[in-house]
Design a protein that fits this description.
By secondary structure, this protein is of the alpha/beta class. The chain is built from eight helices and five strands; from the N terminus they run E-E-H-E-H-H-E-E-H-H-H-H-H. It is globular and about 55 Å long. The mean pLDDT is 95.
Protein backbone atom coordinates (compact mmCIF):
# COMPACT_ATOMS: atom_id res chain seq x y z
CA UNK A 1 0.00 0.00 0.00
CA UNK A 2 2.94 2.33 0.74
CA UNK A 3 5.73 0.96 -1.50
CA UNK A 4 7.95 4.04 -1.03
CA UNK A 5 7.99 3.49 2.74
CA UNK A 6 10.57 1.14 4.11
CA UNK A 7 10.33 1.24 7.89
CA UNK A 8 6.87 0.83 9.46
CA UNK A 9 6.31 0.77 13.21
CA UNK A 10 3.18 -0.55 14.86
CA UNK A 11 2.09 1.12 18.10
CA UNK A 12 -0.41 0.00 20.74
CA UNK A 13 -1.10 0.52 24.43
CA UNK A 14 -2.48 -1.56 27.26
CA UNK A 15 -3.95 -0.73 30.63
CA UNK A 16 -6.33 2.08 29.74
CA UNK A 17 -9.22 0.45 31.56
CA UNK A 18 -7.22 -0.38 34.69
CA UNK A 19 -7.55 1.55 37.93
CA UNK A 20 -4.00 0.94 39.12
CA UNK A 21 -0.53 1.20 37.62
CA UNK A 22 0.82 2.83 34.49
CA UNK A 23 -0.54 2.74 30.97
CA UNK A 24 2.07 0.98 28.83
CA UNK A 25 2.64 1.44 25.10
CA UNK A 26 4.94 -0.43 22.75
CA UNK A 27 6.31 0.40 19.33
CA UNK A 28 7.58 -2.42 17.13
CA UNK A 29 9.31 -2.47 13.75
CA UNK A 30 9.03 -5.99 12.36
CA UNK A 31 11.63 -7.42 10.01
CA UNK A 32 9.83 -8.29 6.74
CA UNK A 33 12.51 -10.93 6.09
CA UNK A 34 11.61 -12.71 9.34
CA UNK A 35 7.81 -13.02 9.53
CA UNK A 36 6.32 -14.14 12.83
CA UNK A 37 3.32 -16.45 12.80
CA UNK A 38 0.54 -16.26 15.37
CA UNK A 39 0.44 -12.47 15.78
CA UNK A 40 -2.97 -11.15 16.81
CA UNK A 41 -4.62 -9.01 19.46
CA UNK A 42 -2.87 -9.81 22.76
CA UNK A 43 -6.27 -10.26 24.47
CA UNK A 44 -7.08 -13.14 22.10
CA UNK A 45 -4.19 -15.40 23.15
CA UNK A 46 -3.15 -17.13 26.35
CA UNK A 47 -0.54 -15.68 28.70
CA UNK A 48 1.84 -18.54 27.84
CA UNK A 49 1.50 -17.91 24.10
CA UNK A 50 1.90 -14.14 24.64
CA UNK A 51 5.13 -14.70 26.58
CA UNK A 52 6.48 -16.96 23.85
CA UNK A 53 5.53 -14.53 21.08
CA UNK A 54 6.98 -11.58 23.01
CA UNK A 55 10.35 -13.35 23.16
CA UNK A 56 10.23 -14.06 19.42
CA UNK A 57 9.21 -10.47 18.61
CA UNK A 58 12.06 -9.06 20.71
CA UNK A 59 14.57 -11.38 19.01
CA UNK A 60 13.37 -11.03 15.43
CA UNK A 61 12.17 -7.45 15.14
CA UNK A 62 14.31 -4.64 13.78
CA UNK A 63 13.51 -2.55 16.84
CA UNK A 64 11.05 -2.37 19.74
CA UNK A 65 10.56 0.00 22.64
CA UNK A 66 8.28 0.57 25.62
CA UNK A 67 6.73 3.87 26.66
CA UNK A 68 4.72 4.52 29.78
CA UNK A 69 2.69 7.09 31.64
CA UNK A 70 2.48 6.83 35.40
CA UNK A 71 -0.71 6.95 37.52
CA UNK A 72 0.11 10.52 38.60
CA UNK A 73 0.35 11.58 34.95
CA UNK A 74 -2.90 9.78 34.13
CA UNK A 75 -4.63 11.65 36.97
CA UNK A 76 -3.16 14.95 35.82
CA UNK A 77 -3.82 14.82 32.04
CA UNK A 78 -6.52 12.06 31.70
CA UNK A 79 -6.20 8.51 30.42
CA UNK A 80 -6.51 9.33 26.71
CA UNK A 81 -3.74 11.94 26.82
CA UNK A 82 -1.60 9.65 28.99
CA UNK A 83 -2.06 6.79 26.49
CA UNK A 84 -0.98 9.07 23.64
CA UNK A 85 2.00 10.24 25.74
CA UNK A 86 3.04 6.63 26.38
CA UNK A 87 2.82 5.95 22.62
CA UNK A 88 4.92 9.04 21.90
CA UNK A 89 7.55 7.84 24.40
CA UNK A 90 7.59 4.35 22.87
CA UNK A 91 8.19 5.69 19.36
CA UNK A 92 10.92 8.05 20.64
CA UNK A 93 12.56 5.05 22.32
CA UNK A 94 13.01 3.09 19.10
CA UNK A 95 16.64 2.60 18.11
CA UNK A 96 15.59 2.92 14.45
CA UNK A 97 13.23 5.73 13.49
CA UNK A 98 10.30 4.67 11.30
CA UNK A 99 9.06 6.28 8.08
CA UNK A 100 5.42 5.50 8.88
CA UNK A 101 3.39 4.65 11.99
CA UNK A 102 0.40 2.38 12.29
CA UNK A 103 -1.40 3.30 15.50
CA UNK A 104 -4.11 1.17 17.08
CA UNK A 105 -7.36 3.07 17.60
CA UNK A 106 -8.58 6.39 16.27
CA UNK A 107 -6.31 8.92 18.01
CA UNK A 108 -2.88 9.89 16.64
CA UNK A 109 -0.26 10.90 19.21
CA UNK A 110 1.78 14.09 18.89
CA UNK A 111 4.65 12.50 17.01
CA UNK A 112 6.70 14.04 14.23
CA UNK A 113 6.27 11.05 11.93
CA UNK A 114 3.53 10.43 9.38
CA UNK A 115 1.17 7.54 9.82
CA UNK A 116 -2.39 6.38 10.28
CA UNK A 117 -4.77 5.18 12.94
CA UNK A 118 -6.46 1.82 12.52
CA UNK A 119 -9.45 0.75 14.60
CA UNK A 120 -8.91 -2.85 15.74
CA UNK A 121 -5.40 -2.60 14.35
CA UNK A 122 -4.17 -5.03 17.01
CA UNK A 123 -6.34 -7.67 15.33
CA UNK A 124 -5.62 -6.69 11.72
CA UNK A 125 -2.05 -5.41 11.39
CA UNK A 126 1.00 -7.55 12.28
CA UNK A 127 3.09 -4.61 13.52
CA UNK A 128 0.31 -3.43 15.83
CA UNK A 129 -0.35 -6.99 17.04
CA UNK A 130 3.34 -7.30 17.91
CA UNK A 131 3.20 -4.00 19.84
CA UNK A 132 0.04 -5.17 21.62
CA UNK A 133 1.76 -8.37 22.73
CA UNK A 134 4.97 -6.65 23.89
CA UNK A 135 3.00 -4.04 25.85
CA UNK A 136 0.67 -6.60 27.46
CA UNK A 137 3.50 -8.90 28.56
CA UNK A 138 5.46 -5.93 29.94
CA UNK A 139 2.49 -4.57 31.88
CA UNK A 140 1.51 -7.99 33.24
CA UNK A 141 5.07 -8.43 34.56
CA UNK A 142 4.87 -4.99 36.12
CA UNK A 143 1.63 -6.01 37.84
CA UNK A 144 3.50 -8.99 39.33
CA UNK A 145 6.05 -6.55 40.76
CA UNK A 146 3.26 -4.36 42.18
CA UNK A 147 1.67 -7.49 43.62
CA UNK A 148 4.86 -8.12 45.59
CA UNK A 149 5.21 -4.47 46.64
CA UNK A 150 1.57 -4.12 47.70
CA UNK A 151 0.58 -7.51 49.12
CA UNK A 152 -3.09 -8.22 49.58
CA UNK A 153 -4.45 -6.44 46.51
CA UNK A 154 -3.85 -9.53 44.34
CA UNK A 155 -2.78 -7.42 41.35
CA UNK A 156 -1.37 -10.52 39.68
CA UNK A 157 -4.90 -11.98 39.50
CA UNK A 158 -6.87 -9.03 38.10
CA UNK A 159 -3.98 -7.10 36.46
CA UNK A 160 -5.34 -3.84 37.80
CA UNK A 161 -8.73 -3.97 36.10
CA UNK A 162 -11.74 -2.95 38.23
CA UNK A 163 -12.98 -6.49 38.83
CA UNK A 164 -15.20 -7.46 41.75
CA UNK A 165 -12.13 -8.89 43.53
CA UNK A 166 -10.10 -5.72 43.00
CA UNK A 167 -12.91 -3.51 44.29
CA UNK A 168 -13.26 -5.75 47.36
CA UNK A 169 -9.51 -5.48 48.05
CA UNK A 170 -9.64 -1.72 47.50
CA UNK A 171 -12.47 -1.39 50.04
CA UNK A 172 -10.62 -3.58 52.55
CA UNK A 173 -7.07 -2.20 52.13
CA UNK A 174 -7.66 1.35 50.91
CA UNK A 175 -5.98 3.19 48.07
CA UNK A 176 -2.35 2.41 47.25
CA UNK A 177 0.16 4.89 45.81
CA UNK A 178 -0.29 3.17 42.45
CA UNK A 179 -4.06 3.60 42.17
CA UNK A 180 -5.42 6.13 39.69
CA UNK A 181 -7.25 8.65 41.82
CA UNK A 182 -9.19 10.15 38.90
CA UNK A 183 -10.89 6.81 38.11
CA UNK A 184 -14.40 6.41 39.56
CA UNK A 185 -13.93 3.32 41.80
CA UNK A 186 -10.87 4.96 43.39
CA UNK A 187 -12.21 8.53 43.43
CA UNK A 188 -15.34 7.34 45.27
CA UNK A 189 -13.13 6.19 48.15
CA UNK A 190 -11.34 9.52 48.60
Amino acid sequence: MYPQLKIIAGVDEVGRGCIVGPVIAAAVILDPKRPITGLTDSKKISAKKRDSLADIIKRQSIAWAIGRAEPSEIDQINILQASLLAMQRAVKGLSVQPDWLKIDGNQYPDIDCPGETIIQGDLLIAEISAASIIAKVYRDKEMSVLDALYPGYEFVRHKGYPTKLHKEKLTKLGISEQHRRSFTPVRQML
